[in-house]
Design brief:
This protein is of the alpha/beta class and about 350 residues long. Helices cover about 30% and strands about 20% of the residues. Helix 7 links the parallel strand 11 and strand 12. Helix 5 (about 115-125) packs across helix 9.
Amino acid sequence: MTLKTTLQTTLQSAWTRRGPLACLLWPLAQLHAGAVVLRRWLYQQGMLTSWRADVPVIVIGNVVAGGAGKTPLVLALVQHLQAAGRHPGVVSRGYGRQGDGCLEVLPLLPASLCGDEPLLIRQRTGAPVFVARRRIDAVRALLAAHPQTDLILCDDGLQHHALQRDLNIAVFDERGVGNGWLLPAGPLREPWPPIARAKHRSGPQAVAPIDLLLHTGQTAAFAGFQSRRALADNAIAADGTLVPLDSLKGEALTALAAIASPEAFFSMLRQRGLTLARCIPMPDHDKLDAAPLWELGQQGLRALCTEKDAVKLFARYPDAGQQLLAVPLEFKPESGFMQAFDARLNALMTPPAEAT
């Protein structure tokens, strides 16, 4: 286990309760809280400026540090919108990539240049995806390059108030809000429940509230819409070959995951009846430059990874064949969430034009 992974694990453990380490960090959390309130107030007063796009902007984010299932929801929403005749585009900061300039994500672009999650979204949906340090730059570039785009999904960015939005969706996993304290004493990026915010969006600097709340874990931490997630029946090799998961039963396997909760992936593999001889948890968004996964391939152990890891590993090992397999995650929000999403979206947009 790397030092980064150890520190990450230690903090995540401390954030589950108000124990000694969390209490030691509590004074720093108060400084964080003050900064959050001050920054929001500056936007509301117009001392910090924000920008509104010509199309509706929907932000999918979380108020806790680390991943909580935002990208699976973005994928589900893009596909839902495309099926309804919409033309969504996606913007992201592209966490973990080299550089911070504005860039269009193309299917064969290395993940190191654009980020693993934006590349996965582009490959899975075909929707235009742009990354930039300032999401405003990404939105402007996307709309200029793809003028048919009629709405923007922002992968993460609830706290990025420089970009005005029409809909805020907050995502939580089983951790909920942890011990309820702000970083670094707890997992919260901002206070929860949300502090008082502008009730109307007529003002150019209004800070929008949370409109929809979705739980992505197996169990909901508190009230809100729920979702279902399960591993697909087939794993995928680098050449696109499908390998039934059931055909891997009884085989000693290696599993690697560089996601926010690697153990969740390992647990789901075991629940499907697979035997994991070794599990390799890596930090979320790890570049996997020195992944120990492949060392085990020389011993004849087949390796399984997540789709997010596969966008990096498949490019690095194009001749791996069926020795390296990605296991997709099937994610589906409950119908009530999609109905509420459609109702809010329809209030913002005209009906999509019928295909001719």
